[in-house]
């Protein structure tokens, strides 16, 4: 059946990376180009059924038992980028709560910083990052999971199947811990088939965050919230309340990030992710000012505003990489007969924060629009492994990253204050 096949393709979402500069230098030393970062796999991370963030350490003998691909280290060319950080997570959360509860905006004292981020103009960098988000190759046997707050006393039994549900991923670090990369993949057992204790909730949240109005695709759908009114009207307040009441999506990410900064207090943390994991990575990038690279991420701009995330002066430290044949980032996986709808999802959002590197595979490679092009393996093997001719022609390695200005989504809906008629 279709939904099962879709499940495995669509599930990748969350990941974490850790890395740091090392002593290798490029052959011709140019002080303006930072030296290569060599990242090695340090931990796996996952979310337990009771929504706690769990880690598992990867020891060297452990990683040698990894099947299939034994490569657990990656080399990335960094470059200097500008980012904005809130004064503290507490200050950020306070401003967010104020906006959420009382509709008041509070100006935050954003700090501008120059830090090392991945050089997203290079194809090799995108390829390495994409490989780091693909943890399907690494299946350690029986990892010992621990929650950070009881680190030395508990060892949880917890599954690690590549297509199991929930956010999970890997943490990479440079040998000196200066750079840490978190990859985030998968979510929502729900996301196309599957099961699991949080699946139902995740699916609900995905539909709240990435559909226009409660995933009411048409009259045959049972909507996930009751905020739609007659004539394509949607009650904004109701929508935001539904999200806040139920969503674990964003808090799981902020817990993960806060746990990582506890483990690596001095490190420069990057966040990468595929699909919904990319969306979570981006929201964390907005929150913490970390460099972010996502692959095939659904439009997350609407989710950021529904979650009332205070917005930094610029989000250009966030880069999305996707191609036009994938209906998820394009926001076209939403017809009643679409594969997403068949899986119980309405992926209707299409606008992204930050900048986007868009490969026009429909025009240039004549790929048909198909959910099966969404998988990270497809992106690695069929898109990033080869030079991209249209870019090479103009002396670039990858398409130019551009902000999605004038992006419009959910235009058939009218959002506003539409209380239920008594
Ligand atoms: C780690 O995250 C959990 C939530 O999963 C939180 O309760 C805990 O306080 C965090 N620990 C640290 C040290 O940040
Ligand atoms: C592992 O890395 C080496 C060198 O970095 C490369 O030659 C080899 O093809 C890689 N193996 C796999 C399975 O990717
Ligand atoms: C671990 O937890 C058990 C009971 O929960 C307690 O008796 C034991 O002292 C703890 N061990 C350590 C090292 O904290
Ligand atoms: C890097 O961080 C880990 C904690 O995850 C620590 O065990 C290790 O000693 C650190 N290495 C360096 C070089 O600081
Ligand atoms: C794809 O791009 C290359 C380089 O610009 C061009 O030569 C080729 O004709 C394009 N293919 C299609 C089908 O448009």
From TrEMBL:
InterPro entries: AB_hydrolase_fold (IPR029058), ATG15_Lipase (IPR050805), Fungal_lipase-type (IPR002921)
GO biological processes: multivesicular body membrane disassembly; neutral lipid catabolic process; phosphatidylserine catabolic process; piecemeal microautophagy of the nucleus
Main location class: membrane
Catalytic activity: a triacylglycerol + H2O = a diacylglycerol + a fatty acid + H(+)
Domain of life (superkingdom): Eukaryota
Enzyme class, spelled out: hydrolase
Membrane-topology descriptor: Single-pass type II membrane protein
Signal peptide start-end: 1-23
GO molecular function, one term: phospholipase activity
Functional summary from the UniProt entry: Lipase which is essential for lysis of subvacuolar cytoplasm to vacuole targeted bodies and intravacuolar autophagic bodies. Involved in the lysis of intravacuolar multivesicular body (MVB) vesicles. The intravacuolar membrane disintegration by ATG15 is critical to life span extension.
Protein name as catalogued: triacylglycerol lipase
